[in-house]
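Example record for the data management plan.
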Amino acid sequence: MKFRYILLVLLMLMPVFVQAMSDKDIMEQVEYAIANEDWEVAEENYRIAVSENTEEAELFFWKHTANDTLFSSKMALILGDHYKRACNYNKAHVFYDELIKLQPDDIDALLACADLKAQSGKEKEALELYERVLSLDVNNLPANIFIGNYYYYYAEKERAEIEHSYSKLRVPTKMQYARYREHINDLVNSDYAKAKGYLQRVIALFPSFEVKKVLDKIRMVEMENAR
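Corresponding structural encoding:
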């Protein structure tokens, strides 16, 4: 009876032992591949490790990140992508930020991080990253699209607020009208002008009907302001 009880306990614990050995084996394979600079195998096995035991894969990243910048950036990207797909944006931000530290001039890394910032509602941080992309590649399409739309959105928002405030004046004075026109003119020459510049570059790179519609709206605002 005692023997059967011990056997039952061992059988219950066996999956835990097997899992522990499996996790250890896969991380050893990653480490071996890194030591031999077999980056393709290292990446393949690390992806498996992340999907099977993310916590262990994270610990491996933090342990090795100071020693091998090249593969550390790959691990950071894999972990960031994993958490992004899982909608764990806080964790995703951690590893994308690490990715940028490791590869500050890598356009793909900057775009991945900027896209996550935009999805998470961190638009100003996304803007800064997309601007860094354009400092490396002025014709980068995603960066021009985001920045152009960013300035257009805030120009439209501010113009609506200016128009609303002015419409509340029953009988505007000449001074109030002049101030209203000045605010609109400043907006046309700042955010609208910026949006126009970026979106014109988008059109030159990719003939988008939607972007053309936005540019037509900006031209209408310019014409109204010029009256």
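Summary line stored alongside the record: Residues 2-35 form the longest helix (34 residues).
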